[in-house]
Design brief:
Elements (H helix, E strand, L loop, with lengths): L7 H4 L7 E4 L11 E3 L3 E8 L10 E9 L2 E6 L6 H7 L9 E8 L5 E16 L12 E7 L2 E6 L2
Antiparallel strand pairs: 1-6, 2-5, 3-4, 5-8, 6-7, 7-8, 7-9
Length: about 150
């Protein structure tokens, strides 16, 4: 095995603890505690022609479905941008955005990126407050989206 530093990027998997999220406009480079639910599921369509030789169906790809993405981050003084985004949702009017989840290397360069198209908030959960707690206040944001494109860093 070579000790060549230029080859390490392809030899070792990327750690998942350094990442940031961009929501477009003024909401760029936001640090989150956790991002989960970046999933794509393709429905299976089964079909069998009456004259097919094999006595089984064939399976074809159908409609793709994307899970809602859940993001958790600490509560900061005078920072209610996500609550304002949620308030922009009115009947038949949704403030959709392109959301970028960026996995970073130790130098802060993007190594992998998940682009969530036509994203909008579906749920915000405020921090649970306890007088005897010793934790940081954390808000949870859940967003729906219509497409996820995975892009390698560059």
């Amino acid at each position: 095995m070579s000790d060549d530093a230029s080859n390490q990027g392809s030899t070792w998997p990327m750690p998942k603890f350094r990442f940031e999220v961009d929501f477009g406009t003024q909401l760029t480079g936001i640090a989150f505690q956790e991002v989960s639910g970046m999933e794509k599921d393709v429905q299976v369509i089964e079909y069998r022609n009456s004259t097919s030789a094999p006595l089984s169906t064939i399976k074809m790809p159908g409609i793709a479905k994307y899970s809602n993405v859940t993001m958790k981050r600490g509560v900061f003084t005078n920072d209610n941008a996500f609550w304002q985004w949620m308030d922009e949702i009115k009947m038949n009017t949704i403030a959709r955005r392109t959301v970028l989840v960026k996995l970073l290397d130790e130098a802060g360069n993007v190594t992998m990126q998940w682009q969530l198209n036509n994203a909008w908030p579906t749920k915000i959960t405020g921090a649970d407050l306890k007088s005897d707690g010793n934790e940081v206040a954390v808000d949870t944001l859940e967003i729906a989206h219509e497409q996820m494109i995975v892009i390698g860093g560059g």
